[in-house]
Amino acid sequence: MEFLIKSVINIRWLFDTILRLVQSNYLIILIVIGIISVCLYWLFFVPLNWNKHVDDWLCQKGDNGYRGKYKCATINRLRKARKVGAKELPPPYPNGWYGILESSSIKPGESTFVSCLGEQFVVFRSEEGTAFILDAYCPHLGANLGIGGRINGDTIICPFHQWSFQGTDGLCTNIPYSKNIPPATRIRKWISTEQNGFVFLWYNAESSELPWTLPISPEVENNGFVYQGRNEFLVNCHIQEIPENGADLAHFKAIHNESIIAGGYNPKNSIFRWLGQHSWHASWDYTREKHIAEIRLKHSLKFYQKINLFEIDVVGKQIGPAFVHLTLKSSIFGECQIFQTVTPIEPLVQKVVHRFYATRKMSPILKILIYGESVMFERDMNMWNQKLYRKSPILVPEDASIKKFRKWYAQFYTENSKVFGLRDNNDW
Ligand code: FES
Ligand SMILES: [Fe+2]
């Protein structure tokens, strides 16, 4: 009883205090400070994450009346349409480095299964922190090491009968119920490296070709720039279409001019299209390093077609067939960097990830940049999802860099590259 009386008194005291605070405006001030603190924390310390998949896209925006209800029907219709251009397609998996997994996806002592490039991989991180990539399926009875495989030091233990395999060379080092390890029992080990926030895999149809060096970003590796967020897309197209976009200079004005507020889908019809106008001056060329090409962009944003708000200089290095390192510099905002990886998870389905880095003080600006880049990428994605690959397109002189790009990109297809066969076509 005494406890009950005390509780009622306490509640009353609390109620009176709140009432007094409200009357003296203190509570309102506290609430406003609280909201501002949460907003500031979000702006400066919470990375942004934006995901868009081919089915989300088609179904959200309404595809000939499907409007979200019949995702399977939409995707199947696309698959059928795709068969028309299948004969013209280049090999689906060009040679080079692929950022198949974001580093943050596996902690020390963890493993995961990754299916891409027509192969099945287990990616695991040793207890000391080194990432290794092996074939996913155990040579014993075929269990998937990426699903339930345990890590001990730098070995992975199969979840089925507990055989151990070394990350360094894939060799079997222990069979818990036998001393007779069959000689040379091993799983295929894939060449890998980890930098700029990704675990990269070396994929090459020619075993004789040695991996070239992937350039690192000192700003990101030395933690001068911090991680600001990411976006991820599943796109329905051949891998080559995505880097080709950088050499397709005419498309910038055609689909990227309208303000980001006009959205990613059909921006020319948006009522917000006049609010801001982006303009782009682009060039594309080879560099002295054989596997690196470069796009240079001068981007400016005009408010209501008149007032110049700011300019950004962009240099995008296309490093091999599936990785881009973008540096964006503005005299007003400073510098930021973006990494793009493209990974074929099926011959005609690409997983595209962008990760954004800048100094902490630029975090609020990066929120807008990530949103803007995602919207702009969706405009491209809407084209890729629906188009065919033209092997011999009709081009005008102004399209010359597309021709140049194709010649350059062809170096990543070699004699033994897997071809896009009828079976692949049926799969997708
Ligand atoms: S299947 Fe891997 S140890 Fe048996
Ligand atoms: Fe584009």
Report what the structure shows.
It is a single chain. With 428 residues, this protein is an alpha+beta fold. It has 2 domains: 49-90 and 218-413, Naphthalene 1,2-dioxygenase Alpha Subunit, Chain A, domain 1 (Alpha-Beta Complex); 96-203, Rieske [2Fe-2S] iron-sulphur domain (Rieske Iron-sulfur Protein, 3-layer Sandwich). Helices cover 28% and strands 31% of the residues. It contains 10 helices and 19 strands. The chain has helices spanning 2-23, 26-45, 54-60, 71-82, 218-221, 241-247, 250-256, 363-386, 400-409, 422-427, and strands at residues 48-52, 96-102, 111-116, 119-125, 131-135, 150-152, 155-157, 164-166, 172-174, 189-190, 192-195, 198-203, 226-235, 276-286, 292-303, 307-319, 323-330, 334-346, 349-358. Strands 1-13-19-18-17-16-15-14 form an 8-stranded mixed β-sheet. It has a 4-stranded antiparallel β-sheet with strand order 3-4-5-10, with no helix packed on it. A 4-stranded antiparallel β-sheet has the order 6-7-8-9, with no helix packed on it. A hairpin with a 5-residue loop joins β4 (119-125) and β5 (131-135). α3 (54-60) packs across α4. The longest helix has 24 residues, at 363-386. Mean pLDDT is 88; it is low at 60-70 and 424-428. FE2/S2 (inorganic) cluster is lined by residues 138, 140-143, 158, 160-161, 163.
